[in-house]
Specification:
The complex is a heterodimer of chains A (about 500) and B (about 325). With about 500 residues, chain A is an alpha+beta fold. Chain A has helices at about 35-45, 50-70, 75-80, 95-100, 115-130, 165-180, 235-240, 270-275, 295-330, 330-345, 350-365, 365-395, 395-405, 410-415, 420-445, 460-465, 475-500; strands at about 110-115, 135-140, 145-155, 160-165, 185, 210, 215, 250-255, 260-265. Chain A folds into 3 domains: about 95-155, no CATH class; about 160-275, no CATH class; about 295-505, MetI-like fold (Orthogonal Bundle). In chain A, helix 13 (about 395-405) runs antiparallel to helix 14 (about 410-415). Chain A is elongated and about 135 Å long. Chain B is mostly helical. Chain B has 2 domains: about 1-95, no CATH class; about 100-315, MetI-like (MetI-like fold, Orthogonal Bundle). In chain B, helix 4 packs across helix 7 (about 180-215) and helix 9 (about 230-255) packs antiparallel against helix 12. Chain B starts with a helix and ends in a 10-residue tail after the last helix. The chains are: A alpha+beta (about 500), B mainly alpha (about 325). Chains A and B meet through helix 10, helix 11, helix 15 and helix 17 of A and helix 1, helix 5, helix 6, helix 10 and helix 11 of B.
């Protein structure tokens, strides 16, 4: 017996509401609703280490964004100017520590020097009026020689250098000297045999001072034309009377009468103040090329962050579309697409990046070539993640219900299934960032990709350039290494926290 | 199972073939270094290029598809990878590559010998002392070591152990005798730097697996049967925890052949990693192609070896089985 026949056709008019006056509603939820993100946030907040990691990441981000902006007027000068080559390998200095007189982070280093070196430094201090040796720890004898353990100020021990100035520059420096009372140009010296501008005293060819009554004897040039009309050093007879007989000579003239130039002994510390308008004090020290590590590291970090975020966003797009198609359609589509991503994921990343550099770097530039290389294989992880989520959700009842109501494939994919996998996707794309930064710094460290220029750098390049100074100037490697380590550790902790936060099955697990 | 293995191996070979073909074609599309540039080595280079079938007798390149066919027949099947054209001009690539392998393998083997017992030991300790100070200490250390890039602790090792304490020479000794005490001592900084990462990896997995097994119900049953804690841990928990860890160890052994590019370049190890970097910076395409193929095949092999070993170790897992 067929069931259909027993059901009679009931006309529409015969239907009526049972009780039109009564409105039926679900009962309102009494407690406060907790949405998906709210729930995730609640869980994230409880994970102390992730919160700390997030704060560190924010600090590093702010450092990368703002330090190059705010230090532009001062420090970036040292990026575009060849005079910064004078200020190489300066040690990190924090003005606060210098003021407090703490022997740490004050731009000084502990050295063990012999008597000759000590006399050399003392002579330098005597001439400049700045202490090269800030502290003498110990004095002792080893194998018949007196040796000193001292603290040497790397900013002053740079001392003097020869510079050839034009008339204009010469006048300008003199004017500045008159205004500030700081001495930049020091008297010329007679000995031509030593090229070291610091040796203003009688010395043997090795530069060891000849002492007389415990004092060095000067070899300043006297008299002669120098067109000098500014402050003079102590002990110069010309200080009292500018036309004195034995007055010191401050420059050697070269060139002809039309374009005269002055070869001067320049005190580098004061010259820096003159040139850049502030006392040299580098928070992280300077590199072997005299570049300020604080701002240079920040610009490298900025590049790393930018690249990583770009890669992460692009991978998110490509990966989620690819993974969604794979996971949703399954079957042959999935098989073919999986094989394609298998092949791509089998290529070592070094190979990809080298081939892209060789082919594209000349046409589109080094950075876009690197970006393409990252994108070519980078999305595979994201696609795999999204595919997994789609397999999980596509058979669920709510999807079937939506399909029954006539939702299109596209709508089902991105309106119904995709939001459910949002947690994993967010976690995945955050965790891409430290990976990209690590890979980029490794590649630049190895010199496979060269990003170094006067205005741009990367953390890896800084490490590579500083490597040969690991034993002598460890600060050059310390700060970039510290930065990248902090970044990687905090991103991993943050990512772990995020993963747990977006995992609703952990709800109330630790309560 | 056999069918599954054969299928995987065939897939792997196909993948490898596609990748190496792409590499070959992309490299061949780059401007060819004219043989005239090699001066006195000109005839050597030209001879080998002709033998490889990349140029005609007068040194002009032949059509790309013909070159590709010759590449498949003479290089991939015949094993003629040409001569070095920038690093060791005129010398056979394959010979030099093979002569570099022992250094890389030695470093890796030492590193594995150190890292497996230490890593597993620390992982087990952390799992047994879960949420006590030992666990917190180990977990924090592992977290730091896993996150910090390997070159950073290579710098630390070099700075503290080599420069400050002067325990080891700064870079590896030259020479080919690999087993003299001085040589072994000079490889130690590189070995330690490599091992730190592996130790952290092993410790992390062991801890995670073991804590999961330790809370499982069959372990409770074993305890109620009257076994001591040590007995349950060794006989029941550890065995089960090893299931996912053992493939990892096997994968590590396959990876023995491929060096760490960064560690090798920092400590001056004359291995394959250093050769690869040098070939890239010197644009020695023949070496580049050979080593790219080599690293690709190592990566692919390690993958399937790990997958297959799961099936062997844990009979509950049937790889590739139907539902």
């Amino acid at each position: 017996m067929s069931r259909e026949q027993t059901v009679p056709q009931i006309p529409r008019e015969k239907f009526a509401f049972s009780d039109p006056s009564r409105m039926i509603h679900d009962q309102k939820i009494e407690t406060k609703q907790i949405g998906y993100f709210r729930d995730a946030w609640n869980r994230f907040r409880k994970n102390k280490s992730s919160v700390v990691a997030a704060i560190i990441i924010v600090i590093l981000l702010l450092y990368a964004i703002f330090v190059p902006i705010f230090c532009e007027t001062t420090y970036s000068l040292s990026l575009t100017d060849t005079t910064y080559l004078t200020y190489i390998k300066l040690l990190p200095r924090n003005k606060l520590f210098v003021k407090l007189g703490i022997d740490f982070w004050d731009g000084c280093s502990k050295q063990t020097i012999g008597i000759a070196q000590k006399n050399y430094f003392d002579a330098m201090s005597q001439e400049t009026g700045h202490d090269v040796i800030t502290r003498i720890y110990d004095e002792y004898e080893t194998s018949g020689k007196t040796v000193y353990d001292v603290r040497v100020d790397s900013y002053i021990s740079n001392g003097f250098k020869y510079m050839t100035l034009t008339q204009e520059q010469y006048d300008d420096i003199q004017k500045w000297q008159n205004e500030t009372g700081r001495q930049i140009i020091f008297p010329a010296i007679t000995s031509a045999s030593v090229t070291d501008a610091n040796i203003w005293f009688k010395a043997d060819p090795k530069g060891i001072p000849e002492m007389k009554n415990g004092k060095v004897q000067d070899i300043y040039k006297k008299n002669g034309v120098d067109n000098y009309n500014s402050t003079r050093i102590d002990g110069d007879p010309g200080k009292a009377n500018p036309n004195a007989e034995n007055r010191y000579r401050y420059a050697t003239l070269t060139g002809d009468s039309k374009s005269v130039s002055y070869k001067c002994r320049i005190f580098t510390y004061n010259y820096f103040v003159y040139r850049y308008g502030f006392e040299p004090s580098f928070f992280f020290g300077t590199t072997a090329f005299g570049q300020d590590i604080l701002t240079r590291l920040a610009s490298g970090a900025r590049f790393s962050f930018l690249l990583a975020i770009c890669v992460s966003v692009i991978n998110l797009f490509i990966g989620s579309i690819y993974g969604a198609i794979e996971g949703y359609f399954g079957g042959h589509v999935d098989m073919v697409m999986e094989r394609i991503s298998d092949v791509l994921s089998g290529i070592p990343f070094t190979v990809v990046s080298v081939l892209f550099q060789l082919h594209l770097a000349k046409k589109v530039g080094v950075v876009p070539a690197l970006l393409f290389a990252f994108v070519l294989t980078g999305w595979i992880g994201m696609a795999a993640r999204v595919r997994m989520q789609f397999y999980r959700f596509k058979g669920q009842e709510y999807v079937l219900a939506a399909r029954t109501l006539g939702a299109s494939d596209w709508r089902l994919m991105f309106k119904h299934i995709f939001p459910n996998s949002l947690g994993t996707i967010i976690t995945g794309s955050v965790l891409v960032i430290p990976g990209v930064i690590f890979t980029e710094s490794s590649l630049t460290y190895l010199g496979i990709i060269n990003l170094d220029s006067s205005t741009m750098t990367s953390v890896g390049t800084m490490l590579a350039n500083a490597r040969q100074y690991l034993s002598t100037f460890p600060h050059m490697i310390f700060f970039p290494a510290l930065f990248i380590s902090l970044l990687e550790i905090s991103f991993n902790l943050f990512g772990n926290g995020l993963r747990d936060a977006f995992n609703p099955s952990l709800r109330g697990a630790d309560e | 199972m056999t069918k599954y293995i054969i299928k995987r191996v065939l897939y792997m070979l196909l993948t490898f073939f596609i990748i190496i073909s792409m590499c070959f074609i992309l490299i061949r599309l780059l401007p060819n270094v004219p043989v005239q540039q090699f001066g006195k080595d000109m005839s050597l280079v030209l001879q080998r290029r002709v033998r490889q079938g990349l140029v005609d007798a007068s040194g002009n390149p032949i059509p790309l598809m013909q070159q590709y066919w010759h590449f498949i027949v003479r290089t991939l099947i015949g094993g003629d990878w040409g001569v070095s054209e920038a690093l060791y001009i005129g010398q056979d690539c394959w010979t030099i590559f093979v002569s570099k392998l022992p250094f890389t393998i030695m470093i890796n083997v030492y590193s594995i010998i150190i890292s497996i017992p230490l890593g597993l030991g620390l992982g087990i300790l952390a799992a047994l002392k879960k949420n006590k100070w030992q666990d917190h200490l180990i977990s924090t250390g592992v977290m730091v070591l896993v996150s910090v890039p390997s070159y950073v602790y290579a710098f630390l090792v070099q700075y503290f152990l080599c420069f400050k304490l002067k325990l080891f020479p700064v870079i590896m000794n030259a020479g080919t005798n690999l087993f003299t005490p001085a040589m072994i001592r000079s490889t130690m900084p590189a070995v330690i730097s490599m091992a730190l990462g592996s130790i952290a990896g092993f410790a992390r997995y062991t801890r995670a697996e073991l804590t999961e097994v330790l809370t499982s119900e069959y372990l409770l049953l074993a305890r109620t049967k009257g076994l001591t804690r040590a007995q349950t841990t060794v006989r029941h928990a550890l065995r089960n925890a090893m299931v996912p860890i053992f493939p990892m160890i096997i994968g590590e052994f396959v990876g023995v052949l491929s060096g760490s590019l960064i560690i090798e370049s920092i400590f001056g190890v004359p291995g394959t990693g250093a050769l690869y970097i040098n070939s890239i910076t010197a644009l020695d395409y023949n070496f580049f192609l050979l080593l790219s193929g080599f690293y690709t095949i190592i990566g692919l092999t390690a993958n399937i070896v790990v997958d297959i070993s799961y099936g062997f170790i844990d009979p509950r897992i049937r790889m590739g089985s139907k539902k």
